[in-house]
């Protein structure tokens, strides 16, 4: 085996060892043994341990604090780029979704949202702001905009379940495709409080414009995801 492959092979073994250690009972923010301890225990060089830790840090399974050591990271939710609802996402990941409705109301579409929903700026839209939770922890703050004329009575309903299910079962609207823009931002203090993180924490901002089965725009949603709990996974093929 060449030196490089040998190093890869060894650091792969160290990495599996550390992953097992995490899976078998360590909790988020628990401290891991030092590089030296791993090296002594597994009979490899510290460099090999460092390679393994680098890979785990890149995958956000661990994080390092300069001068203190390496710690177990909070699990992140890898969201695949398929058109799924928050509820489907969480269930697929074996987590329990729940929702806290922050506020709902109607307002004028305005120029920006109107153009996304192909509505006049003076048209009425329904606006729903909800915190979405995974296993009880807030991960996302969503602001949904819908053409109010297509969702009569929606805002009087219980909105703690799946919006996509409600749109399909009550209004015959099936989401079929979406355009999505993903960017980086920091959370304003009020939004940070809703997501239970410090003001100005990093977040991913995702704008989604969803199209229904008749090729009409249904939803324009701006979602703020906690950057420490969320990442997007993109399958690419050549
Ligand atoms: C996702 C969508 C959001 C949609 C919601 C419906 C992204 C970026 N956003 O959070 O646009 O309104 O799912 O989920 O994926 P629900 O059916 O569980 O309410």
Task: Describe the overall structure.
30% of the residues lie in helices and 35% in strands. The chain is of the alpha+beta class and 238 residues long. It folds into 2 domains: 3-72, Arc Repressor Mutant, subunit A, CATH 1.10.10.10; 77-233, Chorismate lyase. A 6-stranded antiparallel beta sheet has the order 4-5-6-9-8-7. A two-stranded antiparallel sheet has the order 1-2. Strands 3-10 form a two-stranded parallel sheet. A hairpin with a 4-residue loop joins strand 8 and strand 9. Helix 1 (3-23) packs across helix 3 and helix 2 (35-42) crosses helix 3 (46-58). The chain is elongated. It starts with a helix and ends in a 5-residue tail after the last strand. Residues 85-87, 142, 144, 162-165, 206, 208, 219, 221, 223 line the site of 2-acetamido-2-deoxy-6-O-phosphono-alpha-D-glucopyranose.
Give a nutshell description of this structure.
By secondary structure, the protein is an alpha+beta fold. It contains seven helices and ten strands. Helix content is 30%, strand content 35%.
Defining key terms:
single chain, 238 residues, Arc Repressor Mutant, subunit A, 2 domains, two-stranded antiparallel ribbon, 7 helices, 35% strand, binds 2-acetamido-2-deoxy-6-O-phosphono-alpha-D-glucopyranose
Strand and helix map with partners:
Elements: H1 3-23, H2 35-42, H3 46-58, E1 62-65, E2 69-72, E3 77-80, H4 86-92, E4 97-108, H5 110-116, E5 124-134, E6 137-147, H6 163-171, E7 175-186, H7 189-194, E8 202-212, E9 217-226, E10 230-233
Helix pairs in contact: 1-3, 2-3
Bound molecules: 2-acetamido-2-deoxy-6-O-phosphono-alpha-D-glucopyranose.
Residues 85-87, 142, 144, 162-165, 206, 208, 219, 221, 223 line the site of 2-acetamido-2-deoxy-6-O-phosphono-alpha-D-glucopyranose.
